[in-house]
Amino acid sequence: MQRESSFNPYAINQRSGDYGLFQIHYSFWKKHFARKKGSRLWALSFKDLYLINVNVRVGMMIIRHDLVLAHGSVSGMIGFYSGRKGVERDQYILSVLSNESSFRRYRKKWEALAQLR
User: Fold this and answer.
1) Where are the domains of the chain?
2) Strand order in the sheet with 12-13
3) Which of 9, 14, 20, 59 might form a disulfide with 49, Cβ 3.0–4.6 angstroms?
């Protein structure tokens, strides 16, 4: 999410038409998702993607789908999720993986501080 939206649930990529925390590409994915309201299913609108719970659920479903396509390869899944090709795809994968290593460092610091309390 850091790479996609900088953790902004209202992020919009005007160029690509991606919305929310996970920057869901609505025009591509809209035919695959619906939202339950009462006993009926309704097609998701792009506005639904501003709801954090909806955006995260849809984002995780897409990640699961991409992980299956990548045969369990995390870097392959990241590449599929990005929708990029070639060198741009490789640069995106490296960028996401470097963010992950930063979070590990922060987590260790946070856990150490929590133990001091």
Assistant:
1) 2-116
2) 12-13, 18-19, 24-25
3) 20
Which of 14-23, 29-38, 41-50, 97-106 is the least confident region?
97-106
pLDDT (tens digit, 9 = 90+) per residue, 55-114? 999 999 999 999 999 999 999 999 998 888 899 999 988 888 887 766 666 666 667 777
Structure tokens at 94: 């490296």
State the pLDDT at residue 110.
67
Q: Are 82 and 89 in contact (CB under 8 A)?
A: yes
Contact 52/46 with Cβ under 8 angstroms?
no
Cα gap 9→84, rounded to integer Å: 22
Residues counted in the chain: 117
pLDDT for res 101: 67
Q: 11 is written with which tokens?
A: 């992020």
